């Protein structure tokens, strides 16, 4: 069964409104030619929902840890290959300020996900996801030629995150349908910032820096959280290196025009 009980009427109504807004923003993005960003919003939602659905079956802890490691390696590599250069090389001063700000935001969001098993985890992951969506929306607004690779690598951690959140909700005897909040949050953040970008008084360097800091912090968090298990399993480190190598190779291929 997907759930043990349905969310309350108010929660169900809010979820429905949220998904309706997500769909409206998606259609608007498509109409404005923001195809890549719209596709990433769909991918982010599907990845988290698929991870939550996986919690219904018997998925081993090692599989989730390896997925975490690969996702963390890919995200860290994506930040270093695609985002940091634009933040620090092309916009040194605002980029450095943004990098520090992004790391601070990541630390605050990490603190928000600690504590009670259900509500804090749900709220923290939703806040993190919508913040990441805002950063992704800014990246693709200021740098539309970035392509799919960076966005997919950054969002790769959504599947294991969805799995872990669904498990926590189940353990707390709450409906796993509530994973819909963080699932829609990436698209809400990314597509909203794309629609608002003509009026944003924020420099692209500052936004690149914030995105780089946030993504780097989250990636290191995924690797750190699994490190205790990974010290006893060489497959953990192999997965992290493989995830990073794939993105690094993709970045090299793109830069060389391959």
Automatic annotation (TrEMBL):
UniProt entry tagged with the keyword Repeat: no
| Coiled coil region boundaries | none
Q: What is this protein called?
A: Zinc transporter
Transmembrane stretches in the record are 39-59, 66-85, 91-109, 178-196, 202-223, 235-254
Keyword line: Membrane, Transmembrane, Transmembrane helix
